[in-house]
Design brief:
Immunoglobulin-like; single chain; 33% strand; 10 strands; 4-stranded mixed beta sheet; 2 helices; 142 residues; alpha+beta
């Protein structure tokens, strides 16, 4: 194959990769009010030829309801994950986990996993000020 043909193939391949990456970045770039929608868009982008990895549904502060499908992970975007206690009204629908900090310094937001179809009320309570609560009605779909 001559160098001109090789260069054309390389440029075409780079263009496809760049466009695919731009699609994923665009899908992840939603506003705080559409965090569930933007996560779903990212999931469909990756299933159409990406890596197949589906990221968590990120719920922004102030959100009062969210929808998630069975098997997906949800995280609650709080400023200090170590001070928020998380609970669920139905652990068979949503299994919740508190925020944590690992020995290596990695910090994880509180979150949960959608286990089965139904609804659950998730309550996050700020342990520094127990009057500061955040309640989210989560609907789990098949």
């Amino acid at each position: 194959m001559n160098s001109t043909a090789r260069r054309g193939i390389t440029i075409a391949a780079a263009s496809v990769l760049a466009l695919g990456g731009a699609g994923i970045l665009t899908a992840c770039g939603g506003s705080s009010s559409d965090s569930t929608t933007s996560s779903s868009a990212a999931a469909s982008s990756s299933s159409e030829g990406g890596t197949g990895v589906i990221g968590p549904v990120i719920v922004e502060p102030g959100t009062t309801s969210a929808e998630i499908s069975v098997g997906r992970i949800m995280t609650f975007n709080v400023a200090d994950p170590m001070v928020w206690m998380v609970s669920t009204s139905d652990p068979e629908v949503m299994d919740v986990t508190p925020g944590k900090q690992e020995m290596d310094g990695a910090t994880y937001l509180p979150g949960g996993e959608a286990l089965k179809e139904g609804t659950a009320e998730i309550v996050l309570t700020n342990m520094d000020n127990t009057d500061d609560k955040w309640t989210i009605q989560v609907t789990v779909t098949p």
